[in-house]
TrEMBL record:
InterPro entries: BRCT_dom (IPR001357), BRCT_dom_sf (IPR036420), CellCycle_DNARepair_Reg (IPR053036). The gene is ESC4. It comes from the Eukaryota. PROSITE patterns: BRCT. Residues 1-107, 108-198, 345-428, 795-847 form the BRCT domain. Residues 579-590 have a biased composition (Basic and acidic residues). Residues 456-550, 574-624 are annotated as: Disordered. This is Regulator of Ty1 Transposition. One of its GO terms (biological process) is DNA double-strand break attachment to nuclear envelope.
Amino acid sequence: MAEDIKLFAQPPVRFHIVKSATLQDEEIRDISRSLIENGAEPSTPSPSQQDEDFSLENVTHIIARTIDFPNYDAATETLLDKAVVKPEWVNASIMKKKQANPRQYSPDPRMFFSGMIICCADLPEGDQDAIIGYVLAVGGLYTTSVTKQVTHIIALTTESQKCQAALTRNLNIKIVLPHWIDDCLRIRARIDETPYSLPDAEILQRGNNKRIPDQDRRDLKTFSEPHPAHLPTPLSSFGSDLPQVTVFKAKSVMLSEDLGIGSRLRGTLEDLITAGGGTLTGSAHKADFFFCRYRESLDYRIASRARKEVGNLAWLYHLITFNTWTSSMRRLLHYPVSRYGLPGFKNFRISVSNYNGEARLYLENLAKAAGSEFTKTMKDDNTHLITAHPESEKCTAAKEWNINIVNHLWLEQSYARWQVQTISDRQYTFWPPRTNLGEVVGQTDIDKRAIEQYFFPPGSDEEDLDTKPAKTHLPPPERTARPPSAQGLGHGAPLRPLGSDGSTPKASKANRRHTDGDKAQTPANARAALLGKENETPSTGSRSAKAKAAAKLHDLAPDIALYEKESKRVGGVIHGGRRKSDEDRVEGGQRKRSVSIDGHSVESADQGVKAAKRPKTSNGLPTPAMRLLLSGYKRWVGQPTKRKESDEMTQLRELGILIVENPKTCTHLASPKILRTQKFICAVSHAPIILNSKYVDDCLSQNSRLDPAKYILKDKEYEESSGYTMAEALSRAESNKGQLLKDFSLFCTEAIHGGFDTYKAIAEVNGGICLLYRGRAGSTQIKPEDAADESNDVYLLTGTTPDEARLWPKFRQMAESNGKTPRILRHDWLLHMALSQRVIPCDPYMVTDDDVGTAGP
């Protein structure tokens, strides 16, 4: 009977609990007991594993108070993503007698309203809807009545019945102005509610000249500088009695020579690692952890491409001090720095105001790491002033000298995205009233995609993977360090237009002007502007100058590429270059050639290497005969370390099989069956040869590159149910040439299963454009270039959750107001089209109001 079904049995919950400093054994036992009593199953015999590299195969829910565990990215980056929730999700589900929405209990710091439950009192309906939508989008919850669970009441005054009830019953509820929600939206972080708290909100008090308090951020101490000169004080006080550091247990660690530490300190660090069960290695191929100072060495690129844990000395000290794994990507200065700095920052002179203590030191070191000049005192030749609030003598002087005034987010996000951010973005020139932004310093993560695109893009430098493990050393500068003019250009680094002199455009006076609200009214206009169309980067400099610069870069590109290729050769760059007749001549640029791989003709980028004369690389490895992409491959899942994966990938490389991550560069795809993963679907559009993943197992066991023609993937069950064969789909993919969706106008809901980025990638690899649709007034308008299809249809990909269903009427209205026909479809429509590589009717996938709350097909 339905009454006998336990809460966590349907849908089934198989859980793993991640132990951390804020989630210890006693609480883990209580959570585990509650889950099991209500029908959940632990993924392992023990609900908590000391080894954080647990297997994701049998897990549906991961209980954690932090996202700092090694499997977090893998758990959230697949179409079959796992639910990562706080422990509060368990109690909330039990109280509601149904499984709560995991999104509202995410430990992701970007969901900065997680754990907050709001109630609105006497607000205009439009403002109330906007506030509720934003709170839900960043992890909060909403209720219509005042209960003990409510944390905040959003109101204009305390005179409403809900506010009086909270005050009368002496509930621990904060009553705040809606301005607080708006300012959190602008900063994209949760700031202190005190200046917005009723009945005596500071931001409403006229003539309040009270000094804004400083923020003491001692928590920044372990990541305020990228290369500490000494061990942290607690560790240095141990002397010969070293503490037990188990964070590296069963892991291999490599300390790069470019760390520049003395033999005594290196010996101490090595003793700490080995005493806790870790091992040391001199090979980036075999290392689980790789520590270096700069983003330039061969070992850095090898470790990064192999998805090793890469960080700097400050991160090593942090791991040892707290004996808990955290990602080096979470803190900007825990990741290796660039020797040459961020392009565009070299001419900046930056000063800081109103940040103090560790926050000030952190921003100073971050500005230097970005390549700018930091000045403790400000002069009229400074280009930027970074301030926590706009009330200081420096701010007054900066306005008089026409110096750009920004908050710390401009510096952090420029560094994280490795691209100078324009100060015309209101986010960087906004300071919440009576608030010191020092309280939210250091919350920006490294943008993994930006770093990969600039420093080690897939397929751009494959000689790195051809190199056998070598002894740890820092090669001579002329062989590894790239000249500032060439660094990144060979990698297709994104360039943002700057001013004509190379500097960031000056901020206008309008951007620096701040208004004080004398009356308590909902800031609807500001909210509408923020939720509308984003600011566009203003055009700066003459078109003629830009055209000349682009032409010059284009002319120099072959020389830069040739320099980089020659600099990696044994012997370095020869004066005067090599003759065309030389056997090991490297030609600049790329050209395509047809290569026969086991009976199949494949077009591949040869980087100008003459295959007939260079059958092997300079290190003795064969030129890759196969660039293989893996999807759904389980051989290395759940391994206690990554050593087996690294060793076997090296073995495959020696056989001529290069494992790649980018679907665009693969010639072959290996999978146990036809899957609906992002990798598989994106690869199909490039028509690779699709093999059964047993091919990889057999190549490894026989230590030989076998004939792939004998391992062509056959999935009769899928092909019978779908009505087409994969051979037919690949044939159509060759004809489509990546343009299957070129005439489609696609939109996608933010909460769609698998995430918007997945569907965006699938659409783009098939020649389409997919835009995010949030249903906000003015946030999405159909432009001519977004609606080129002759059928006059526009499509919204969606799930059937109540939150997504609320967007459907708004989408219909938006489409019809632009003279288009709305088509609201389940997300499976796009997946089936991309897999079959043919346009299929959308009628079977149309959703109606009756589908709300149902599962997809």
